[in-house]
Amino acid sequence: GSRAVEREVDSVCPYCGVGCQISYKIRDGEIAYVEGREGPANENRLCVKGRFGFDYISNPQRLTKPLIRRENAPKGLNIDPANPLTHFRETSWDEALGLAAGGLNRIRKDHGGHAIAGFGSAKGSNEEAYLFQKLIRQAFGTNNVDHCTRLCHASSVAALMEGIGSGAVTAPFTDALQADVIIVIGANPTENHPVAATYFKQAAKAGARLIVMDPRGHALRNHASDLVQFRPGSDVALLNAMMHVIVAEELYDRQYVQAHTEGFDKLSAHLARYTPEAMAPVCGIEAGRIRELARAYAQAERAMIFWGMGVSQHTHGTDNARCLISLALMTGHVGRPGTGLHPLRGQNNVQGASDAGLIPMVLPDYAKVSDPATRERFEALWGFAIDPQPGLTVVEIIEAIHREEIRAMYIMGENPAMSDPDVAHAREALAALDHLVVQDIFLTETAMFADIILPASAWPEKTGTVTNTNRQVQMGRPALPPPGDAREDLAIIIDLARHLGLDWDYTHPREVFAEMAQVMPSMANISWERLEREGAVTYPCPAPDEPGSAIVFGDGFPREGGRGLFVPADVTDPAELPDEAFPLVLTTGRQLEHWHTGAMTRRASVLDAIEPGPSASLHPDTLARLGIAPGETIRVETRRGAISLPARADTALQSRMVFIPFAYVEAAANILTNPVLDPYGKIPEFKFCAARVARE
Ligand code: SF4
């Protein structure tokens, strides 16, 4: 209606890493609607999730009281999230926190701190991520703390740290407007980073050559100059062949290579055998086309590369990213306007949560726990001893539970019972824990395994900062209070720390941010007051009165010696190839309306109305060959399990592929996926496993 709103609260969208600035319009004590603001990443634009995906916060299934599992109540997914009291009883915060801390301390006493692990969240604030990792390291003396970055860009970050000494993007996606050539590879921004996609479309419309490289020909192809639909898993073959051409035809930037890189001779020798003719049958792209694409990228005045999970979620994800880095380095397409490397970050705060140290092998700002001087620095600042042994990663923690090495967990805002690969195996692990504390806003699939559930705050109910894919740190503000007895997440973490015996005296996120700025060089010149006043500041920021450096590495890289490193990559097969029994390739991902495991978006009425249920997409010819009509229920099976769901016809897919979004518990895609890991990033191969499909 047209009735005036009572209040407007400026914040940031809680969904994807684009980080659109929004304004909540409050009427009658509720969010009436949401509008985009003039933020640096969105300039008033919003996608359907940001605009309509907010009424989950008032869904009747919100948790409003701390819950304790009833004695002998079975653990598992057989609980109706609308009726948790069949398996849990309500309690006070004091009893819940006392039992949560008591159980964790008992495990520590009986089995040592390494028997405990924590999953923090890329959907929380920087301050929450920072305190969560500090709690695990301080209270339990272990580095077993990780979050969903492991399932997202861990391999990209491993390659970027190795190649250019920094895991974040080198330029914001808005710089696409300055580029002559834009490569978008293994990403589906139209659905997963929709507002970023609007900048790519705008650039293409203004004359830039937009090259979409992906086994799936998703919606961005309609705006692209080129769709390069290579075979699933053949990224290295395609990219090595492109680099072969650039070296053979001397299209590389000799001056840049000499001034700013090392390892070029080794790489060029390595590339000799990767001719376009040899690689064409591997990647399914003609040699002439590979040559032409290589020339277009290399000869552009300014070119940018954007990539997503299609690059990272492979057992050779780190190798895929190494090739992209080498492409940019050999052509000098880094460090100037309209050039750069940009892994499109998924969650709204996966950049910030990673920077804040929610990672088992590094402390805040990627300081290695294995390095004695680093530990000494943090021990002096923090006042407690840091375990020198790197902790376990997400998928490794699940394995360690099966080996009875990990016996208790604290999980905040993550849903491994839906997001882990081979999720039946992960659910067995969660059920086997002696003690599980889950902090969340709904009875998620993971919370169904918990002993203690702590009711938390939704994003529009709290104060905190988040860092988007562009390295822009932005301020989120509370529009409403949490419902019932639910509390702000930061207050819960602090209170749990006190119950665990830590002498924490933080009273406001501002104090946590100030401590972060003290221990994290990346936060230099960014203060809470600035963020409140300016809304967004980019790191690194050279001075308190400057907006921050949008484009970095114009004059070298933060590696020893200041040079970027070429790391050659070989073509390797995915871990599980199609065969007679399982002839198709299964790939998974998201869709525009639903966010990750669906905990929020499936409880948002508009989004749920558009996409109410699961589906498996196949090419219409594949469906016809299998005698399946669109809409019919099919059974999709892999060596790990089977699910049933309706078939959907989609010409974007190649003939031997099936695509399933992972948001739907009733047909959970991750029952099917392969948990085998990339050796460097420890990321599972969500984007490729062997499957078969039949009419049910
Ligand atoms: Fe939110 Fe991302 Fe959509 Fe922007 S593009 S409104 S940040 S989901």
Automatic annotation (TrEMBL):
CC terms in the record's Gene Ontology section: membrane; oxidoreductase complex
Domain 4Fe-4S Mo/W bis-MGD-type: from-to ranges: 6-61
Keyword Zinc tagged: no
Keywords from the named record: 4Fe-4S, Iron, Iron-sulfur, Metal-binding, Oxidoreductase, Repeat
GO biological process: formate metabolic process; respiratory electron transport chain
The keyword Protease is assigned to this record: no
Domain of life: Bacteria
Sample GO molecular function, one term: molybdopterin cofactor binding
Similarity annotation: In the C-terminal section; belongs to the prokaryotic molybdopterin-containing oxidoreductase family.
Protein name listed in UniProt: Cytoplasmic NAD-dependent formate dehydrogenase alpha subunit FdwA
Source species of the chain: Saliniramus fredricksonii
